[in-house]
Automatic annotation (TrEMBL):
Gene3D superfamilies: Uncharacterized conserved protein DUF2267. This is DUF2267 domain-containing protein. InterPro entries: DUF2267, DUF2267_sf. It comes from the Bacteria. Pfam families: DUF2267. It comes from Pseudoroseicyclus tamaricis.
Length: 152
């Protein structure tokens, strides 16, 4: 079996993802973008059980997959999904002293994730998860082609 594309090109894939997030969030640095994305992933994974989280992570690009599972305490109780405003507040509270995350952090992260994942695989995993999960990763765009996976 050949090496998976996401492992062979992890740095290029991550760079493209991070650049997209920075632009979409109007952030100036890689650190700011990383902090926002990490916070979004932490807030999201708190709402999954371990199996759901691993299934979700399995369709992410390799660096995002690593960030998603990094320091995950799977013994924590599962959190409820709230309205978007409360979720964004929770995202902004992660590493609050170093967090300049904008209000569109969840949408911008979802936008960039969708552009770096295989749509069929991503949708297959989302379809197995609760409706709130699908809502979390929903992105509304005028042109659906904007969300198609980018080949680097």
């Amino acid at each position: 079996m050949p090496m998976p594309w996401t492992y062979r090109h992890a740095s290029k894939e991550w760079r493209a993802f991070l650049d997209g997030v920075k632009e979409r969030m109007s952030l100036e640095s890689d650190n700011m973008a990383y902090t926002a994305v990490d916070a979004v992933l932490q807030v999201f994974r708190r709402r999954l059980n371990t199996q759901e989280g691993l299934e979700f992570a399995s369709v992410l690009p390799s660096v995002l997959r690593a960030i998603f599972v990094n320091n995950w305490d799977v013994t924590e109780p599962r959190a409820e999904f709230y309205d978007r405003e409360k979720l964004v507040s929770e995202v902004k509270a992660v590493r609050v002293n170093h967090n300049l995350t904008p209000d569109n952090a969840i949408e911008a992260t979802a936008w960039a994730v969708r552009r770096t994942t295989n749509r069929r695989d991503f949708e297959r995993v989302l379809a197995k998860l609760p409706a709130e999960v699908r809502d979390f990763w929903q992105v509304d765009v005028a042109d659906p082609a904007e969300l198609e996976q980018r080949i680097i």
